[in-house]
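$ run holo --ligand "zinc ion" --emit tokens
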Amino acid sequence: MIRPWSSEQPSKAALLSILAISHRFMMDSGVEWSIRGLDSLDPEEAITPSHRLQLAFRYKIEKWVFRAVNDIFDRQAGRKQLRSITNEDIENMGVRTFVLIAKDIETVQASRISVVVNAPIAYHSPHCSLNQQRERDCAHAWRDYWRTIVPQMLLAADQPTPLQDLAAFLRHTEIRHVENACKLQILSQFEQAGVLTIEPTVRKHVASSIWDLYQQGYM
Ligand SMILES: [Zn+2]
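-- output --
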């Protein structure tokens, strides 16, 4: 017998049954209880992101859509993202959801590449600009740093630096031959371009598009 009130951790199968039954008989507290239980399973037993999406559609659990999308984006960072989605995942989440996620993973990847390719324009402090040679060296060192270090960070095959962490990292990193005042000015201009915050925005956007489609009955 399943006893939700027992202190022992119930199994995933038990939680899934309770979720199904509670949903069927509209017992909200049972639904909430099993959601909490499923969310706190050990990592090796935890439900996969695509299974979570499937359950989100089946039982109308909106908050799980965002969580699942986040997990899919995080699961295999870097260049493996799309390849890491299996046929079983696609079956679970549905083709429309997969297409939305795939497009947005592409968007994020394209943004990373565009940041790598386009070094932010160098601005120079009044002190740096006093001496033309110094300013040239500073600009050169900045471009050089961008060309050599930033690709390794943003396009790493495993665990690339999130775009939104790049500016903070650079702010705290000393770059040889680049004046700190110049660097800070460059970074504050660069941050205003908005490309660095694209990833969280895209994740939220894809989760809400998926939920909209679901509500229109497409899932
Ligand atoms: Zn400078």
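-- notes --
The mean pLDDT is 90.
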